[in-house]
From TrEMBL, chain A:
It comes from Thermosediminibacter litoriperuensis. Keywords: Amino-acid transport, Cell membrane, Membrane, Transmembrane, Transmembrane helix, Transport. InterPro entries: ABC_transp_permease, BCAA_transport_permease. Pfam families: BPD_transp_2. One of its GO terms (molecular function) is transmembrane transporter activity. Its main location: membrane. It is a multi-pass membrane protein. The chain crosses the membrane at residues 6-29, 36-55, 61-81, 93-112, 132-158, 187-213, 219-248, 255-276. It is found in: Cell membrane. The keyword Membrane applies. This is Amino acid/amide ABC transporter membrane protein 1, HAAT family (TC 3.A.1.4.-).
Automatic annotation (TrEMBL), chain B:
Keywords: Amino-acid transport, ATP-binding, Nucleotide-binding, Transport. It comes from the Bacteria. Belongs to the ABC transporter superfamily. InterPro entries: AAA+_ATPase (IPR003593), ABC_transporter-like_ATP-bd (IPR003439), ABC_transporter-like_CS (IPR017871), BCAA_Transport_ATP-bd_LivF (IPR052156), P-loop_NTPase (IPR027417). The keyword ATP-binding applies. The lineage of its organism: Bacteria, Bacillati, Bacillota, Clostridia, Thermosediminibacterales. PROSITE patterns: ABC_TRANSPORTER_1 (PS00211), ABC_TRANSPORTER_2 (PS50893). This is Amino acid/amide ABC transporter ATP-binding protein 2 (HAAT family). Residues 2-234 form the ABC transporter domain.
Length: 284, 234
């Protein structure tokens, strides 16, 4: 039973990691926290849901489309909103993304009502993997594997491509990056886009086993923020480990203290870590 | 090649450069010398587009560049080696150099220029896969210059090469700069080390609190009363 709990905690943890990687990437490159990050995830879930409902597309098949939608959405968020406030003092950028988050949620409610929606007949629905006493849901397993793949794809892209190197350069010094001939505006927009694609993939993977409603993303925004703080702001590897850690502690907390307290455990860990390692567990 | 006319600029509306004019001709090595806070760095930043002029004109190869964004100025052929080196510390030496070649399109060009640069800086080739932040100060300065050369510039702007280096290393980086100049590169060097900078330059300008107060060949300036009094304590 405990093994079961640990496994499912780790699996969902990898999805959290992917969401957090998207968030920490933006912070690492331009020191901005995107409060609408989780809402992009919700948009991805709805994208998948409507493609499923209207066109009978399986969520796994529409995953690339959802990722593209959130890439574009996030890219445009930079171009239309962030770009104007990125040099403004203090909390301006933060408040702008907060406003965007509220807008997206309310707009989703207006368009699609607050009702819970479910995808009930996908390729992975209700499938299970049984190994002795341990049972793993295929949707969760696929979500974890998909998230791991996307996370490594993003890391590979940043490490090994020309655009990726430019992203790293812009993260370390904006002016010096410009002196290399890098159009930092473009790189910032692309970074936002990649961040959006991360939650797009995560949302599509979650859509097969989570309810879809306008507030779906709220929890993810919050958890991703906690994970980013734990892993060290801007630290991609930290986000990866942090996600798994939070997935685990949520599962174990739920098991030992009851599901209603599982997030209490998560935030307790968060507060403790901030007390003793304010730069995050991995951020030295 | 580069013409700066009546340039005034500064930060947040506060001017620090007043009505400065100078030029750099093809193949020359020109030095702008001046003490702490004279405005040397500010001038270079304005040429490379990091700062915008309040007034005046900057022309490069007969094109106005004073309203262009920095990344397009690089494409025209100006490379700026910034003060304090500013290498990308978390990245390898090789990745730093590849970033220098960001504006080059073809992979064969990039490979070729990388080989050329490694030939001038064999030390960097040895350290290719090392993170830039683990290099010594002198090596980082070499890397900053090498990175500047990677874009195949027509004009190299070099800010305070000697900053924070031991005298023996200063001579070494200055020798390298001379070698690059001998190979035909046009160079604009700004320096606090007045003597060294004027000795190696074809021509020079003396900058005091944002104004050019003297100009001439390196030799003329070194022999002038102004330079002797103000910078050599004679
Ligand atoms: N980012 C900035 N914001 C406001 N003022 C600045 C900024 N950078 C430089 N200044 C001011 O502009 C003036 C010229 O500075 P600049 O850095 O160009 O001098 P410099 O000749 O390069 O000096 P050094 O030899 O110390 O490098 C100084 O008075 C400085 O205080
Ligand atoms: Mg300076």
């Amino acid at each position: 039973m405990l093994l079961q709990i640990i496994l499912s905690g780790i699996l969902v943890g990898f999805v959290y990691s992917l969401v957090a990687v998207g968030l920490t990437l933006i912070w690492g490159v331009m020191d901005i926290i995107n409060f609408a990050h989780g809402d992009f995830l919700m948009v991805s879930m709805y994208t998948v849901f409507w493609l499923y409902t209207l066109l009978r597309l399986d969520p796994l098949a529409s995953l690339p489309i959802a990722a593209l939608v959130t890439f574009v959405l996030s890219f445009l968020t930079y171009k239309l909103i962030i770009k104007r406030v990125i040099n403004a003092p203090g909390l301006t950028a933060l408040l702008a993304t907060f406003g965007l988050s509220l807008f997206i949620r309310n707009f989703a409610q207006y368009l699609w009502t607050p009702n819970y929606r479910f995808i009930t007949t996908s390729l992975v629905t209700d499938k299970k993997l049984e190994m002795g006493s341990v049972i793993i849901g295929i949707p969760q397993l696929v979500a974890a594997l998909g998230s791991i793949m996307m996370t490594f794809l993003v890391v590979w892209f940043i490490k090994n491509t020309k655009t990726g190197r430019a992203i790293q350069a812009a993260a370390q010094s904006r002016d010096t990056a410009k002196l290399m001939g890098i159009n930092t505006e473009k790189i910032y927009a692309v970074t936002f886009g990649i961040s959006g694609a991360c939650v797009g993939v995560a949302g599509a993977l979650l859509a097969t086993f989570f309810p879809i409603y306008p507030e779906s993303g709220a929890l993810y925004s919050l958890l991703a923020f906690v994970i980013v703080a734990l892993g060290g702001f801007g630290n991609i590897a930290g986000a990866l480990y942090g996600g798994v850690l939070i997935g685990l502690s949520e599962a174990l907390g739920g098991f030992f203290l009851g599901t209603q307290f599982k997030y209490a455990i998560v935030f307790l860990i968060y507060l403790l870590v901030l007390q003793f390692r304010p730069k995050g567990l991995f951020g030295w | 090649m580069l013409k700066v006319r009546n340039l005034s600029t500064g930060y947040d509306g506060v001017p620090v450069i007043f009505d400065v004019s100078f030029e750099v001709r093809e193949g020359e090595m020109v030095s702008i010398v001046g003490s702490n806070g004279a405005g040397k760095t500010t001038i270079l930043k304005t040429i490379s587009g990091l700062l915008k002029p309040f007034s005046g004109e900057i022309e490069f190869l007969d094109k106005r560049i004073d309203r262009m964004p920095a990344h397009e100025i690089v494409k025209l052929g100006i490379a700026h080696v910034p003060e304090g080196r500013h290498v990308f510390g978390k990245m390898t030496v090789r990745d730093n150099l590849l970033l220098g070649a960001y504006t080059l399109e073809s992979d064969t060009d990039i490979k070729k220029v990388l080989e050329e640069v490694y030939e001038i800086f064999p030390r960097l080739k040895e350290r290719e896969n090392q993170k830039a932040e683990t290099l010594s100060g002198g090596e980082q300065q070499m890397l900053a210059i090498a990175r500047g050369l990677m874009s195949r510039p027509k004009l190299l702007l070099v800010d305070e090469m000697s900053l924070g280096l031991m005298p023996i290393l200063v001579d070494k980086v200055l020798d390298i700069l001379k070698e690059i100049s001998r190979r035909g590169m046009t160079i604009l060097l700004v320096e606090q080390k007045v003597q060294e900078a004027l000795e190696m330059a074809d021509r020079g300008y003396v900058l005091q609190t944002g104004r050019i107060v003297a100009e001439g060949t390196g030799k003329e300036l070194l022999e002038s009363d102004l330079v002797k009094k103000a910078y050599m304590g004679m």
